[in-house]
Every structure is written in C-alpha cells, then in structure tokens.
Write a structure and sequence with these properties.
Elements (H helix, E strand, L loop, with lengths): L11 H23 L6 H25 L5 H19 L1 E3 L2 E3 L1 H18 L3 H15 L1 H12 L12
Antiparallel strand pairs: 1-2
Amino acid sequence: MESLDNLVFLDFSFWVRIVATIICGSVIGWERIHSHKPVGVRTSTLICMGAAVFVMSQELILKQAAVQIDYTRIVAQIVTGVGFLGAGAIIHQGVSVKGLTSAATIWALAAIGVVIGIGYPLTGLVLTFCVWFVLEPWRKFERWVGNIEKPDDNSGPVDH
C-alpha cells in the first residue's frame, strides 16, 4: 500500500526513468513525423513510457510481496501487447505492404521502455540513437542504393 513514506512519484529513480522514456520516445517520434509516418511523437512516447511503467509496476508489486523480481514475466506480456499494436500499423495494399517499419519501430520503442524500466536509462538513450540511426540515415542510404539499382518488377521495397 502506498503511504507518505514510500510515494513512488517522489523517488528520483522513477523520474529519471520517466524522463528518459519521454526523451527516447520523442526522438523516435520526431523522426517518424519528419518521414511522414503515422507513428508520431505522442504515440512513440506513450509506447516507450507505457512499457517502462509496466516494468516498474512489477517492481512495486514484488516489493510488497518481498520476493525476488522476475522481469521476464511482464516483459513477455509487453512483447505480446506491442506485437498487437504493430500488427495494426501494417497495411496490405494490392501487391505492396506498408507499415512494417512503423511496426518494427513500435516494437523497438517498447524494448527501449523495458530497458529503461528495469533501471538502465542511459542504455535506453544509446538504444534510441541506434533506432534513430536505422530509421533516418539508413533510409537515405536505401534511397541512394535504390537510385543505383532499380528493381525489375516495380514492386519496390516492402518495409515502408
């Protein structure tokens, strides 16, 4: 039970983690908006923060029960739920499939949130840079390579 002695929102570690999820989700969300993709800043931030809060809530539950923390149980549920969100981002139009990168981004954001939630906010920031690097510079590289080698079947890449 929460009391004045153990208010979670007064814990510095809690706020470091929440701020880290806001930063990480926002960075990826801004890249998605810049690329004219449906998953924007608010959605990205909420996915990252939600995953972290689920993990941190398990800490609170197990603190009350005075048992060892097993993050794997909650993480497995996050992966399942986020997979459902990602599936909603994928659209099949004729011979092309759109939204695969958005779906993968949703999954990566949840993973970053989990890493931050278990207490590694700096690692979450590094992972955010890695995801951004895959989304932004690699997208430009793909376009450059696409200008060099045109596919014969005109179907184009399927992961946009």
